[in-house]
Amino acid sequence: MAADDPEVVAELTRRARSSGIVLAVTAMLVLPAWAPLDLYLEPDLAGTFITLRLLGVLPMALALWLLVRRPLGRRRPELVTTVLVLGVVQAAVLWMLPQVEHPTAYALGLAPALFGIGGVLAGRAQWTLGLSVFTWAGLVAAALVAGDDLPGDELVTVAAHLATATAIAVVTHGVRQKLSLREVRGTVSLHREQERTRRLLARLERLSEEDPLTGLANRRRWDAELDAACAAARRSGQPVAVVLVDLDRFKQVNDRHGHAGGDAALRAVADLLRAAVRSGDVVARLGGDELAVLLPGGPEERAVELAERVRLATLALELPGFDPGELTVSLGVAAAAGEDAAPAVLTVRADSCLYAAKGTRNAVGTAARLPAPA
Predict the structure, then answer these.
(1) Fewer Cβ atoms within 10 Å of its own Cβ: the N or the C terminal residue of the chain?
(2) Do 142 and 84 sit in the same domain of this protein?
(3) What per-residue confidence (pLDDT) applies to 371?
């Protein structure tokens, strides 16, 4: 999995945004909280420093708003956090440094931002390096501005502390970034494998209930749907109807057109049935050339009307190699409601009507209208 894998990048960015929000809130609380140190160590400058600290909260609040609400914060959380939060902290401390009588105490305030970006910000280690370079450049500038007001021993102490903080931050961030990248890659890979497994199981489940030739429901699903529809009809008193469909002279069709022609005929009739039903109806292939339609909540009249439409549509089919009107179907219709709605009862009734229709072929048989034998 490549390092620029979109899902990996998206997860790393999400983590950077979350950690950036934590850093922004923390910095907004911590920066003003150092005001007592100003009052204790630099009482003459305390008013100016406290004002500066309070003003520093404004860009941090802007960063928090960007991270929470705006596209920039969602796309570039590392940039927003480094510049508007941690960069502001370092800039404030570096501005104070040349003016104070206790530079070491104030310079120690540079370390928390480095520790924060190295140990908290879930982003690339380059941002820690960037903040470190900015901090060191600012320290050099502060030392030049302070001149002799910043004694050499104080400068060496500050540099030693800052070097330690920089090393810890960079190493920590590098190691954590490597571990995070490995973890995110593993998580993304696991999620993808789970999704593939889910799709495979769904496909297997679909195949276990689907006839491979026609794409209709198979006998297993038909039995389950018929049981459920009859149970619902018994509870509600609503009707349920069944239409059984047989292709007439199917053996002759196979003998004349071969199994490929027979398969094409089955698929064509299956398509007609699929197009004729409504949402919630079930079309199945029960085996061989026997197809069936289940109409939950459907009265017998609708089932008969559907059967007639399918019969006429089949008669009008134009299949390659078939003569006009050569392919016909016989259909048996049965309906029941209430306690009569039992799978065995419906099947037997529909089968009887289908048997009667087969006597003339190209006919629809119902309990009220059984075709006369030819």
Answers:
(1) C
(2) yes
(3) 47
Residue 134 has pLDDT above 70, yes or no: yes
Instruction: Name the token pair of 353.
Output: 């009507």
Q: Is residue 161 included in any domain, yes or no?
A: yes
Residues with Cβ within 8 Å of residue 161, at least 6 apart in sequence: 104, 107, 108, 111
Mean pLDDT to the nearest integer, 291-297: 95
pLDDT in tens, 177-224: 888 888 888 888 888 888 888 888 777 766 667 888 998 999 989 999
Whether 255 and 143 share a structural domain: no
pLDDT at 258: 92
pLDDT digit string, tens, across residues 83-123: 999 999 999 999 998 888 888 888 888 999 998 888 888 87
Q: Are residues 176 and 229 in the same domain?
A: no
Are residues 232 and 185 located together in one domain of the fold?
no
**How many folded domains does the chain comprise?**
2
CATH of the domain at 274: 3.30.70.270
Q: Is residue 208 one of the residues assigned to a domain?
A: no
Report yes or no on 269 lying in a domain. yes
In tens, the pLDDT along 37-53 reads: 999 999 999 999 999 99
What token pair was written down for 9?
A: 């990048």
* Helix (H/G/I), strand (E/B), else coil: 365: strand
Query: Which residues span the domain enclosing 224?
Result: 219-365
Question: In Å, what is the CA distance from 314 to each residue of 100, 276, 301, 323?
Answer: 97, 12, 20, 12
As a whole number of angstroms, the distance between CA 366 and CA 142 comes to: 100
Count how many Cα atoms sit within 13 Å of the Cα of residue 372 in the half-sphere of its side chain. Answer: 1
> Do the Cβ atoms of 134 and 185 come closer than 8 Å?
no
- Going by C-alpha positions, the residue among 298, 241, 288, 282 that lies closest to residue 266 is 288
Please classify residue 288 by burial: count the beta carbons closer than 10 Å to its beta carbon, then call 0-12 exposed, 13-18 middle and 19+ buried. exposed
- pTM over 0.85, yes/no: no
DSSP 330: E
Are 178 and 261 found together in one domain?
A: no
Mean pLDDT of the chain: 89
Arithmetic mean of pLDDT, 71-80: 92
| Pair 265, 174 in one domain | no
Helix orientation angle between 300-315 and 250-276, rounded to the nearest 10 degrees: 130
For residues 186 and 228, membership in a common domain is answered with no
